[in-house]
Amino acid sequence: MEVDLTHTSEIITALRPYLYQERSIMVAFSGGIDSTVLLHALVQLRSDYALQLSAIYIHHGISQHADQWAQHCQQVCQQWHVPLHICKVQIDLSSNIEAQARTARYHAISQQLQPNQVLMTAQHLNDQSETFLLALKRGSGPTGLSAMPAISPFASSYLIRPLLGISRRAIEIYAGIHQLPWIEDESNQDTRYDRNFLRLKVLPEINQRWPQFNQMVARSAELCAEETQLIAELIQEQLQHCLTPEKQLYLQPLLAMSDIKRNAILRAWFKLHHVDMPSRQQLTLLWQTVALARDDANPIFTLQQKIIRRYQRTLYLLPNSPSLRDTILPWDMLSPLILPDDLGQLALSPSMPAGLRAPRANEQVTIRFQAQGRFTIVNRLGSRTIKKLWQELGVPPWMRNRIPLLYYNETLISAVGVFTTLEGQGSDLTVIHTV
């Protein structure tokens, strides 16, 4: 701990540019050699930059040694006077463990990251090559081949990877000079995982033939990132012309564009909504099955945890919400009613002009999300089917089973905030819906 390589260490030099502005840093600490070296180097620089350091260990519970690793990390952090958070996460071992572990890890970290604190991780030059080749295997374009950026938005802060230009060999030398203790995850030797297969079987052969391969891959990733940024800048103005005030997408301008340009606009739209990039095949299917569907269709396209729908020549990106069609909620009207699926609450308003009659003694009040039949509503002549009413009032199909419907017994009184039926017209009370 007393060895001072501040002016000579490649790793210390790589860290310095990131410390002039960042003072509060959380390190993703697995106890492996990479994160151990990163944390140690930051400890060496702590007094120089008045750093507030903490570390986080994610306990996946996959390995039988996970408890021992957590204890090792605790001991190291105690020795180096770094506060450590240990977070346990649950992983479904039946499918894609790598992806699940990564998602769970970053979600847990985002919950622990404090305001004005940045996250630092220890990915290095060799990791960058692996990420690039994995993206190449998936058939990714320039965005995917950009691999890992040194700085990227994360939670409400930033994720910084200060060692992306540092080779695995430099990390091993640093660890040896400082006699650092680290753990070896036995799963890192399991070539059933794609990343391990590249690391253990493929890249050693490539690097033996071309020793500068990792540096050249990093250069290609950097060029792909620059191209992606240039496309984003060039497309931004046209994207703004295609957006509705609610950030949905007008179809009309897209119809006159080439496939390549339209796909770039669609990708920029997904990025705006923080949705992972769809494949080219998915974009083609989306356009054919949703945008170009016949006018009377109600097409739906599922993408990850979102759905894309078309309504009145506009594409909508929406959460994939559960159906509430069969939901019936009793309500005493004495206290606010909490609605399901984050739809807010209903309450009586003491200040707004009354527009509903009060329920009679023999009428039970319920809230539902489905109606059938014909209804006559206030300020409109003649009865209409509920579907026709929704259409005339401009309510999109996916909202029609998410608007709270006030019933007295089996009589529809009001679609709260949208319309009141003649059977519900009165001057006793007003129901308000707040989200």
Automatic annotation (TrEMBL):
Catalytic activity: cytidine(34) in tRNA(Ile2) + L-lysine + ATP = lysidine(34) in tRNA(Ile2) + AMP + diphosphate + H(+)
One Pfam family, short name: ATP_bind_3
Enzyme class: ligase
Positions contributing to ATP binding: S30, G31, G32, I33, D34, S35
Record domain Lysidine-tRNA(Ile) synthetase C-terminal: where: 365-431
InterPro entries per UniProt: Lysidine-tRNA-synth_C (IPR012796), Rossmann-like_a/b/a_fold (IPR014729), TilS/TtcA_N (IPR011063), tRNA_Ile_lys_synt (IPR012094), tRNA_Ile_lys_synt_N (IPR012795), tRNA_Ile_lys_synt_subst-bd (IPR015262)
Enzyme Commission number: 6.3.4.19
Species, as recorded: Candidatus Schmidhempelia bombi str. Bimp
Localization (cell): Cytoplasm
Gene: tilS
A biological process term (GO) from this entry: tRNA modification
Family: Belongs to the tRNA(Ile)-lysidine synthase family.
Keyword set includes Nucleotide-binding: yes
Full protein name: tRNA(Ile)-lysidine synthase
SUPFAM superfamilies (UniProt xref): Adenine nucleotide alpha hydrolases-like (SSF52402), MesJ substrate recognition domain-like (SSF82829), PheT/TilS domain (SSF56037)
Domain comment, as recorded: The N-terminal region contains the highly conserved SGGXDS motif, predicted to be a P-loop motif involved in ATP binding.
GO CC aspect terms: cytoplasm
Keyword tags: ATP-binding, Cytoplasm, Ligase, Nucleotide-binding, tRNA processing
Function: Ligates lysine onto the cytidine present at position 34 of the AUA codon-specific tRNA(Ile) that contains the anticodon CAU, in an ATP-dependent manner. Cytidine is converted to lysidine, thus changing the amino acid specificity of the tRNA from methionine to isoleucine.
